[in-house]
Amino acid sequence: MRRMTSQTPSTAGPNRARPQVRPTPEGWKQPMGPDGRPQLQFAQKPRVSQPPVHLADLTLAERQEKLKGMGLQGFRAKQLSVHYFQHFTTDPAKMTDLPAAQREELAEAMFPTLLTEVKRLVTDNGDTIKFLWRLFDGSLVESVLMRYPGRVTLCVSSQCGCGMNCPFCATGQNGLTRNMSAAEILDQIVQANRVIAEGGLKGSGRDGVHDAERVTNIVFMGMGEPLANYKRVMSAVHRMIDEAPEGLGMSARGITVSTVGLVPAINKLADEDIPITFALSLHAPDDELRDDLIPVNSRWKADEAIDAAYNYYRKTGRRVSIEYALIKDMNDHPWRAALLAKKLNARGRGWVHVNPIPLNPTPGSIWTSSEPEVMQEFLDILNDAGVPTTLRDTRGKEIDGACGQLAAAE
Ligand code: SAH
After folding, report:
1. Beta bridge partners of 217
2. What is the pLDDT of residue 16?
3. Is the distance from the beta carbon of residue 281 to the nearest atom of ligand 1 less than 6 Å?
4. CA dihedral 114, 117, 118, 119 (to 10 degrees)
5. For residue 144, which of 154, 155, 174, 281 is within the disulfide window of CB 3.0 to 4.6 Å?
6. Cα–Cα distance, 388 to 353 (Å, whole number)
7. C-alpha angle 385/166/348, rounded to 5°?
8. Peptide bond into 149 cis (omega under 30)
9. For the segment 238-283, what is each residue's pLDDT rounded down to a tens digit?
10. Which of 244, 123, 233 is nearest to 181 (CA)?
11. What is the pLDDT of the chain when averaged over all its residues?
């Protein structure tokens, strides 16, 4: 496809004809379903083994019950919760407030090993770290930790693999293995907090001072489709916002759930009455293209997904985000920016923010990111139409930024 575009000027203006590259996967074969369309996996296969239950899977009351059921003292649940959610430790040797004779037994009961670090890639300036974790069954997942002035963001995974089969995404290429447990999702944050506490995340905050000493923001933009793992993701979100020591005591506003557009689940999320931030991966305003770019568009069309995003705003009052990976000559045409603006403005003003990101090409793919001037034009058209639009930063390009790439390479 790049061959084709090389025959046309890369700085094509709005009036010049631009090629339309079709999204066919390159370098891998997209599994097809019986209907001849890219296969979708909404649920994990039956009887996939689940990780052992961990303290973070349970509410404080459930932790107490579990300990009592094991013949241990229920009130120890609170002490163990402080160690995990406030000191980020699962090491019995450090739990000096517990009787020495019981420490091992208590820690073993509540803290089975969930995430084992396989690889840690750090950017040259140290403000971004990408972790590759091995789970109890050998599954590999990633998280990315990023320091910004005034905040620290962690991009978390919610599934081992993904069943949504988007042709431009590295994670989808091996399908869905299984859902991650709530505690597996949370342990990514606790482990990141421990790394920060040990001084492992560099970079400068405001005035060069590290002004956030733990993860303040979560984006569900790692591996997996969070709304296809709804129950565990919501249980993890509750634990994130529960006051310590029941949970991490984070602000719900700092948590972003991103989805390909599972409409019924978006509506359910809107009814939860939790002020988390919602993001829709739209990537194309027209079904013609979105049918191929986001296979789940065969179930819920672009307009239905946009309606669900608007409904989320109406119900929660929270401005929603539209994600849009800009792919050269595929979805970056000026008319698409205009159509997107028209569709968003038709629902109202001030309810949405568009957040394009240059495509991060996956290995073997010949798709490529849009040219800078094409991206600028795309942004200008939306902003001029009154839709606030900002280019998302591409942190960690040098460390295999595209999510799922590390796991795929192992
Ligand atoms: N399944 C969810 C969340 C995980 S992906 C979702 O689709 O929203 C997080 C974001 O990264 C999504 O917007 C996804 O489309 C985007 N993404 C995936 N692969 C990408 C790539 N190679 N370059 C840029 N963005 C990509």
Report:
1. 153
2. 60
3. yes
4. 150
5. 155
6. 5
7. 25
8. no
9. 999 999 999 999 999 999 999 999 999 999 999 998 999 999 999 9
10. 233
11. 90
| Helical spans, DSSP H, in 146-243 | 182-197, 230-241
CA of 250 to the centre of ligand 1 (A): 24
Q: Of how many residues is the chain composed? A: 410
Contact present, 104 and 76 (Cβ < 8 Å): no
SS3 category, 210:
coil
How would you class 45 by CB atoms within 10 Å of its CB: exposed for 0-12, middle for 13-18, buried for 19 or more?
A: exposed
Tell me if 52 sits within 8 A of 136, measured CB to CB.
yes
Out of 142, 225, 246, 377, the active site residue is 142
Number of alpha carbons in the 13 Å side-chain half-sphere of residue 248: 31
Active site annotation includes 377: no
**DSSP-derived secondary structure for 24-77:** --SSS---B-TTSSB----SPPTTPPPPPP-GGGS-HHHHHHHHHHTTS-TTHH
**Does residue 221's CB lie within 6 angstroms of at least one atom of ligand 1?**
yes
Strand 176-179 to strand 159-161: parallel, antiparallel, or no bridges (unpaired)? antiparallel
Neighbours of 141 (CB within 10 A): 30
**What values do phi and psi take at 152, rounded to 5?**
-130, 125
Position of tokens 């998302």? 392
Under the banding of pLDDT at 50, 70 and 90, the label for residue 160 is very high
Amino acid at 177: T
pLDDT single digits (tens) 90-100: 999 999 999 99
- Specify the range with the lowest mean pLDDT, choosing from 56-60, 79-83, 153-157, 202-206: 202-206
Q: How do 352-358 and 255-259 pair as beta strands?
A: unpaired
Q: Is the CB of 359 under 6 A from ligand 1?
A: yes
Burial letters 62-99, b for 16+ CB under 10 A, else e:
ebbebbeeeebeeebbeebbebbbebbbbebeebeebe
Average of per-residue pLDDT across 151-158:
96
Q: Which two tokens stand for residue 100?
A: 């020495």
SS3 335: helix
Residues 6+ away with beta carbon under 8 Å from 134 = 115, 116, 117, 118, 140
Cβ(402) to ligand 1 under 6 A?
yes
User: What's the 178 CA to ligand 1 centre distance in angstroms?
Assistant: 18
